[in-house]
Amino acid sequence: MLRKKLFIVMSLFLFGGMSVATFAEEGRADTKNYSVQKVDSGGAVAKENTGYFDLLMKPGEKRTIVAEIKNSSENQIVVDNQIHTAFTNSNGEIAYNTKSESYDESLKIKMSDIAKVNESDIKAEVEKKGTRKVRVEIEVPENAQKGVILGSWFFDKEGQTSENDKQKGVAIQMKYTYTLGIKITIDSEIATPHIDLTKVTVGNLDYRKAFFAHIQNDQPAIMGELLYEGEITEKGKYDVLYKGKLEKRALAPNSTYAFPIFLGKEQFEAGDYTFRVKVTSSDPKWKTQTWEFSKNFTILADEAVKHNKEALNDGVPEKKEPIGLYVIIGGLVFLVLVIFIVIFIKRKGREKQSVKEYAEEKIALLEREKRHKERKIKRQREEREE
C-alpha cells in the first residue's frame, strides 16, 4: 500500500506574554515531551512578568540570560538552540523563528552578533524526566545607539523525523520547536519613527504576480499597527489600474517590507507606471502618523513575459477584447465610407454639370436656328421689294 507522510511543525512562540502555536509543513515528533521557559533576565528589564526577555541595557553592558528545558519523556533528549535576528517577512509580520536570507542595510547590530549561546549548551542534553538550564551571553557594543535590538532564542529537539503513529498507510510526523523572544532596549525607545519608500519592483509572491513597494523602517524600533494602502496607475495619469490594502501589520527594527499589490488574472504589460502608497502607523508608542509616497517605474517587455510565465496561482488570464483591432477595423470602415461619399458627390457634380452643358447647347442651337430663320425672312423680304 502506498504510504503517505504528513509533516507538521508546531512552533511555540513566547513573546508579549503569549504562547502562539503555528503550523507549517515540516518535521515530526512522537509527542511534545519537552518544554522551554524563561528563567532569568540577568538584570534590568523594560517590562516585568513577560514570557519573553524584555531587557533594558546600556552601551557596553554585558549580561547572561537563562532558560530552562524540561524533558518529560522516558528518554534522554538533545535540544539544539541558537540565536536569530528578527526581520519582517513577506506577510508584513515580524519573523523570529527562522533566519533571513539577507538583512536591511540600515541594520548595524544584529541580535545574532551580540548574543551567543554558551558553547556547552548549543546541543543541550537533558536526562529523562529531567531539566537543564541553558545560558546566552549578551554583550552590547559601546557604539550602540538608543532604540531596540530584536531577536529570539530558538529551540529544536533532535530526532523529530522518525516515522511513527502509522495508521492505514499514513505516517503522521509532527515537530515541536520553541522560540523565546529577546528584546533589548538600549537606554530607551526612539522619540520618532521614520519610514521610506526605497524602490518599486515587480515579480511573483507565492507564484502570484504583484507590484512591490519596498517600505523601509530605517530606525531601531518595532513599528506595529501599520496600515498599507496602495494603487498603480499609468505614469502621468490617475486612473487606477490596480489597488491593494493591508492592515494590522508590523515592521521589525531596521527592516524592509515589500508591500504587494496583486494583479490577479490580469497580465503584466510593458510600459511606464506609478506606484502611490500611503502608510499609517497607529502604534501607541507614538502619535498616529501617516506617510505618503509616489515612485515611477518601468516594466520591460521581456520582464513582463518572464513574470507572467512564472505565475502559477493566478488562474487562467481573462480573455481581453481586441480593442486595438476593433479600432483599426472601425477606422478602415470610416475611411471607406468617406471615400464613397466623396466619389458620390463628385459623380453627382459631374451629372449636374452634364445637364447644364446639355441645356446650354440646346439653347445655343435654338438661338442659331432663330437667327438663321430671321436672316432667311429678311432675304425673302428684300427680294420681293426688288
UniProtKB/TrEMBL annotation:
Pfam families: WxLIP_HBD, WxLIP_PGBD. The keyword Ion transport does not apply. Residues 1-24 form the signal peptide. Keywords: Coiled coil, Membrane, Signal, Transmembrane, Transmembrane helix. Residues 356-383 form a coiled coil. Residues 34-156 form the WxL Interacting Protein peptidoglycan binding domain. The chain crosses the membrane at residues 323-345. Residues 167-309 form the WxL Interacting Protein host binding domain. This is Uncharacterized protein. The lineage of its organism: Bacteria, Bacillati, Bacillota, Bacilli, Lactobacillales.
